[in-house]
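(Fold this chain)
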Amino acid sequence: MYSRQKEDDIEQAFIDIGFNLVEDTGRRKKHHADKLMHNSTCNITLAIDHKSTKNKEGIRITKEMLDKIKLEAGDNIPVITFNLYEMQRKFMIMEIDDFGILTG
């Protein structure tokens, strides 16, 4: 339940900055990116995989996680999101080259 709530919080955060939900893949497919979010202004789709944690000190991101989301994203931009337990701020991890696409 906690992780689903955090995924929904991330979805809302992206909606707040101009993205629309294309597909909630995490509810349909096991071991797949959680959300596909599209921004029609810049015609970009993100494949978002949220990492929920109850850790207050940090989060561990592995090469396996990065490779997995890259593979799952296909033609979309892979993004890993996270926030630490009891912290309202949300963070994302993406490749610098993909960030260059976003900033155009």
Observations:
- Helices lie at 2-16, 63-73, 96-103.
